[in-house]
Amino acid sequence: MKEQWLKIKEWWSTLAAREKQAVMVGSIFLSVFIVYQFMWSPLLNHLDVMRKRIKTDGDTLVWMQAAEAKIKKIDSETKQSSHIISPVALMSVLQKQIESVGLAQNLSEIKQESNDSVAVHFQKVEFDKLIVFLATTVREQHIIISQFTAIADATPGLVNADIVLKIS
User: Fold this and answer.
1) Is the Cβ–Cβ distance between 81 and 142 less than 8 Å?
2) Are 134 and 163 in contact (CB under 8 A)?
3) pLDDT in tens, 85-115
4) In a 3-state reduction of DSSP, which class is residue 158?
5) Looking at 60, 79, 98, which one is the last position of a domain?
6) Cβ distance 88 to 117 under 8 Å?
7) CA-CA distances (angstroms) from residue 47 to 8, 52, 135?
8) Helices (DSSP H) in the chain: which residue ranges?
9) What is the pTM of this model?
10) Domain harbouring 115, CATH code
11) What is the Cβ-side half-sphere exposure of residue 50, based on CA atoms within 13 angstroms?
């Protein structure tokens, strides 16, 4: 190692002042280039990547907060809606809902079909109103439609419907 250092010193001493200046300037530029290429540039690239990541993570956070709000809203609506536990209670709730939507005059029969289901029969009921009523009831009361039969009446838009609702 000492031998190489001595050779470099000897070589340096043989250079003219102008050559020494050129080597020094070249060494400084080389040092600056190395620092820039291997330290500064990767740091700037990393900062750029991190800034982009922060933006995308921020967008994801906003989306997640909106989704959380929707989930909480749905959860609170679900908790607020009543849970039917017996067919008798379901028949009572159905009767009230049928009256509230104006389908009572078309209701011909509502009866308990089994331990977990209720049969509802309508005569000459408006199909659109019936579907809206069923969709609302299924969503609010946590029941399923296990059987649905609708036979078209001579009057357009009216049907005779037999529905079996099962407690889920």
Assistant:
1) yes
2) yes
3) 788 888 888 999 999 999 999 999 999 988 8
4) strand
5) 79
6) no
7) 40, 9, 53
8) 2-14, 17-35, 41-80, 87-101, 127-141
9) 0.50
10) 3.30.70.60
11) 6
